[in-house]
Amino acid sequence: MSPMINYVIATFTSPENIGTNPQALFWLLPLAAAISIGYKATKLSEIKAGSFFKDVVGLFGSIVGFLAIIALVLYVITWLATK
Amino acid sequence: MAKPRLLKNNHALILLIVGLLGWLIPGAGFFFLNEKKRAIIIFVTLSLIFGAGLYIGSIGVVDPYGSWPWYIAQVMTSPLVMILGHYVSAGGFPVYGKPAEVGQIYTGIAGLLNLLCIIKSVYLAHLYRIETDGGQNVADD
Q1: B80-94: pLDDT as tens digits
Q2: B20 lies in a domain?
Q3: pTM value?
Q4: Is residue B82 part of a domain?
Q5: Does residue B121 lie within any of the structural domains?
Q6: Which residue of A56, A83, B65, B121 could cross-link B29, Cys pair, CB 3.0 to 4.6 Å?
């Protein structure tokens, strides 16, 4: 096996370093994108590039938007409880 | 009008094949139904998100004993995950904290999305049969 293949396989045997900081929340973005694409691929009756992209962006925006609202509400509740 | 029993059996067999193909390779159920664009989108998306989960958390996130609820969701991606789970259960791939969390969520969501795709492809296969038979099977079934 070539060293390149060995290296690629080895990257899947040890975890990446992800800190418990606010930036770690950005890991939700690829997941939200995958959910939007996967869901819309099953939902739309016909797949056309333009409408598919528009629908995916809409769903992605909805997911991220609602999560942001929930985060804001939780932040306000925490702030009120601890002030 | 009653349909021949063989046709009914074949219909069930086709639904089973579509479901199994969709489980074996994400999107293959749609490919079988000639929905190639849909199949490619699903295959690429689910492979990327599952691969990303394994990359972030390592293959240790596929843990049949330590985190079996996640494992059930992960196995929905493909039965090949069971081979990985068997390999990992021998030990040697510990993963904790945030990488484990992110990796499990990514791979678990990939599995659950594939479950949605399997259900949808089987339903689509059922609808195709109704369309090709002029809707008579709704009453027959």
Answers
A1: 999 999 988 887 788
A2: no
A3: 0.86
A4: yes
A5: yes
A6: B121
